[in-house]
Amino acid sequence: MESIQVDHVDKSFQSGKSPVEALKNITFNVKQGELFGLIGPDGAGKTTLFRILTTLMLADKGDAWVDGYHVVKDYEQIRKRVGYMPGRFSLYQDLTVEENLSFFATLFNTTLEENYELVKDIYVQIEPFKKRRAGALSGGMKQKLALSCALIHRPSVLFLDEPTTGVDAVSRQEFWQLLRGLQKQGITILVSTPYMDEASLCDRVALMQNGSIMKIDSPGGIISQFQKPLWAVQGDNMYQLMHDLRHDSRVDTCYPFGQYHHVTFNESTIDIESLKKEFQQKGVHSITIDRTEPTIEDCFMELMNQ
Amino acid sequence: MKQFFYFIQKEFYHLLRDRRTLFILFGMPVTQILIFGFALTNEVKNSRIAVLDLSKDEATRAIIHELEASRYFDIVENLNSYKELEPTFQAGKIRLAIVFPEQFQENLLHTNTSPIQLVADATDPNVANTLSTYAQAIIMDYQNSMRETNELPYRINTELRMLYNPQLKGSYNFVPGVMAMVLMLVGAMMTSISIVREKELGTMEIILVSPIVPIRVIVAKMIPYLLLSMVNIGSILLLSVYVLDVPIQGSLWLLVFECLLFTLTALSLGLLISSVSGSQQVAMLISLMGLFLPTVMFSGFMFPVENMPIPLQIISNVVPAKWFYYIVKDVMIKGTGFQTIWMETLVLAGMCVVLLVVSLKKFKVRLE
């Protein structure tokens, strides 16, 4: 069964005098119990898509259904059965952790006790601070509280808009483990993130850029479509190296990737040693060039260039 | 219903935890009443005057005594010559000087007429006018007391009676004005800010994506400010009765009812403002410029509406505070009943209903 269906959705905004197309012909489905990721940089249209699906905005064209209900005609039904965690931290800073939770529980006609099982794993982590005001929590704690609030009424579909933005690496790891746990309980999760490394944690992902979906597949499927051999290049002057690589006719693409530059070549066989020498002559030393496995980010960069 | 009550409870948490705002909300009416009552008053009291008595006889002494006895004047300088007059004014020591010519009483008794010169500092024309009128009245009093022994035929006496406010207290005028101002500000500004704050924080997104009916959100937002306004009504009335000696002549319940009606109008206005503004600053600016200024200018509390050009008089009719100001003046000061203010009440009620309906219609169930 399809939990979320999006069918040719368009949306544009008036920004000054010229309209900005935020979403262009978006179509995808999310199966029940699936953990689906929308991956893309800021401005890709992820938040707009979330708002259309959570009935907060109307699409210009196209239709969408959540849990079998149409986002415009049956918006009241959808509002009863989805959980939504907006991108900005959207809880009351001047209420305590406990008060926030019971407020959102009451808002959805339920209580913390009733659905304690569902939020238990998350709530035990913030329970020691339950008398603390939400505004005084750390970033990771805030996200956990927001997730608890979005979950408190046992939604059938959970919308999480950039839940890990601005959260430290350890908390991000924990957060994704929590999502996996929720998925086991049968909750469909649509999550967006600008972090490419989080894509591999989803069942399927849609890569978004400038309001369009470039590709939908499982993370493994997307990576397997990366055909060319990928090389990780490192040297003592990375800036100079990037400049030289990008101006080399044999180089197809070159992107900075952590401590390395990820490079693909136009030719299928490359003489590594002569390449190293050439760059050394140009003033970059201690160069290493090794084969590496592509990641989602490499695929994203490649798709962007097409 | 439970979600509705919890929502109200949540609003109270917001309100009570924001100490600074709370202090302003409760402190504002009290300070305004006290400032208007004791500092910003255009009543003339204890004005410093100088006397230049070149005659020093029985009559001048009697008049000076009368002047001194009145609460309007404070004789701070006794001048000895004309030359001292100008420097005393220039030094700002006095606002009025009274000059008795030589042989004042003699002239009065023998030629039946004797002049007194009043010299006023007219940099503030209103004060100069008021002071000279008071001084003239006191001098006339003395003249009348002389005539009693020495009856003249054909005399017209004007007897002035100031109705409703015999002591001409300014507080009779500004208590209704301050009430209009405070209720408008608390109602409209605070409601609009509290709704816009939820938009700004993003919590409105979650509230919308929940089963709660939007109208309940609105009502839950209004109730704390309605209660707060009632506390303010109480504190203003208590202060005006017990501190400023402005009695409530008419029915207290009628007055409270009218206050509630006006508060509801203000709350609906706040709701309307919240639906057109995207940030707390915008909401505050619209409330201040769009409500506070018209309330002060067009209610008749600072400037009489009758003296304004016709277009402004017409504009003043759409300002709810104008109608409320009339009502409070009638009920509280004149002590009239509902039969004299039913029209104003009807206008106010009409405004309230229209504003409420429009703002409920404009309240968006979506973000755009």
General description of the model:
With 306 residues, chain A is of the alpha/beta class. Chain A folds into two domains: 2-217, Rossmann fold (3-Layer(aba) Sandwich), CATH 3.40.50.300; 230-305, Alpha-Beta Plaits, CATH 3.30.70. Chain A contains ten helices and 14 strands. Chain A has helices at 46-53, 75-81, 97-107, 116-126, 139-151, 169-184, 219-224, 238-246, 272-281, 296-305, and strands at residues 2-15, 18-31, 35-39, 61-66, 69-70, 82-85, 157-161, 188-193, 204-209, 212-217, 230-234, 251-257, 260-265, 288-292. Chain A has a six-stranded mixed β-sheet with strand order 6-7-8-3-9-10, sandwiched between helices. Chain A has a four-stranded antiparallel β-sheet with strand order 2-1-4-5, covered by helices on one side. In chain A, strands 12-13-11-14 form a four-stranded antiparallel β-sheet, with helices on both faces. In chain A, helix 4 (116-126) packs antiparallel against helix 5. Chain A is globular and about 70 Å long. Chain B is of the alpha/beta class and 368 residues long. Chain B has two domains: 2-40 and 169-362, no CATH class; 47-149, abc type-2 transporter like fold. In chain B, 67% of the residues lie in helices and 6% in strands. Chain B has 14 helices and four strands. Chain B has a four-stranded mixed β-sheet with strand order 2-1-3-4. In chain B, helix 3 links the parallel strand 1 and strand 2. The mean pLDDT of chain B is 87. Classes of the chains: A alpha/beta (306), B alpha/beta (368). Chains A and B meet through helix 2 and helix 3 of A and helix 1 and helix 8 of B.
Summary?
The complex is a heterodimer of chains A (306) and B (368). Chain A has 306 residues and is of the alpha/beta class. Helix content of chain A is 33%, strand content 30%.
Identify the notable features of this structure and list them briefly.
heterodimer; A: 306 residues; alpha/beta; Rossmann fold; Alpha-Beta Plaits; 6-stranded mixed beta sheet; 4-stranded antiparallel beta sheet; 10 helices; globular; B: 368 residues; abc type-2 transporter like fold; 4-stranded mixed beta sheet; 14 helices; 4 strands; 67% helix; elongated
